[in-house]
Write a structure and sequence with these properties.
about 250 residues, mainly alpha, globular
């Protein structure tokens, strides 16, 4: 597989991958400290700002491994990626059904009525935009394109951009799994590990960032759909009706 072309900017090339990810974390921290009345504005601003940053870097020549025509999606590949994303949704949900004690304490669930009942549809659309579109883009750029390749070269003088995408190594798999889990709250780690390991194995096969963005977006979109339409549809092993809002 052809190695990545150099981006327009010289240097270590970290900022296009690190800045959107760190920016999202910082905006999340700031948003958590604002009054509840600001939640709808944060919900809109946070993904929009991160996506704008990604687009800005891309327009400056970053992410050649994402832009290359060779990784363009085909219809059969897209269907397969959606199927994998749906299967990984089961991986994310099943442990909480089988072991209810893994669920977090009540109180942190997403509230679709944060801006009033009349704005529920708008709030859900904004959440879908951030959760199922923007998050898969910046997170896959950081985890799968940056962290996975940096893990292979960090102790050498090689540039991570010289490595092709999706080369399997135990080191890259372990480092990627750890970093992905650290980006999530501890109660999610039970499902973060199988999700990232299985999706990384799929990445080693597909070697396409776009494919993994589809997988990731499908899982996140399916979780949000379950929260909206699946209230009380499933019961955990204790027989308690299951709500999906704490996922999103």
């Amino acid at each position: 597989m052809q190695v990545d072309e150099r981006a327009a900017d010289e240097g270590h090339g970290w900022w296009p991958y690190v800045a959107p990810y760190v920016g999202f974390l910082l905006l999340s921290e700031v948003g958590a400290r604002l009054p509840d009345a600001a939640d709808p504005f944060v919900l809109a601003l946070k993904p929009a700002a991160v996506l704008a940053l990604v687009v800005w870097f891309r327009m400056r020549g970053a992410y050649p491994e994402w832009r290359r025509p060779a990784v363009a999606m085909t219809a059969p590949g897209f269907v397969l990626d959606v199927g994998v994303g749906l299967a990984l949704t089961v991986v994310w949900v099943a442990p909480f059904l089988l072991f209810p004690g893994l669920k977090p304490e009540p109180g942190g669930e997403f509230d679709p009525a944060m801006a009033g009942e009349s704005a529920v549809a708008i709030v859900l659309a904004l959440r879908l935009f951030g959760y199922a579109l923007v998050t898969p883009i910046f997170e896959e750029l950081f985890i799968r394109s940056f962290v996975m390749r940096v893990a292979e070269v960090w102790e050498s003088e090689r540039d991570f951009r010289d490595l092709p995408l999706g080369q399997y190594s135990l080191r890259s798999l372990i480092v990627t799994t750890i970093v992905f889990c650290l980006g999530h709250v501890p109660w999610e780690w039970w499902v973060c590990v199988p999700w990232i390991v299985l999706s990384s194995l799929w990445f080693y096969r597909r070697r396409s960032l776009t494919a993994l963005m589809v997988v990731h977006g499908t899982t996140n979109g399916a979780l949000l759909a379950l929260a909206v339409f699946g209230e009380g549809w499933l019961r955990d092993v204790r027989g308690t009706p299951f709500s999906f809002w704490f996922f999103v």
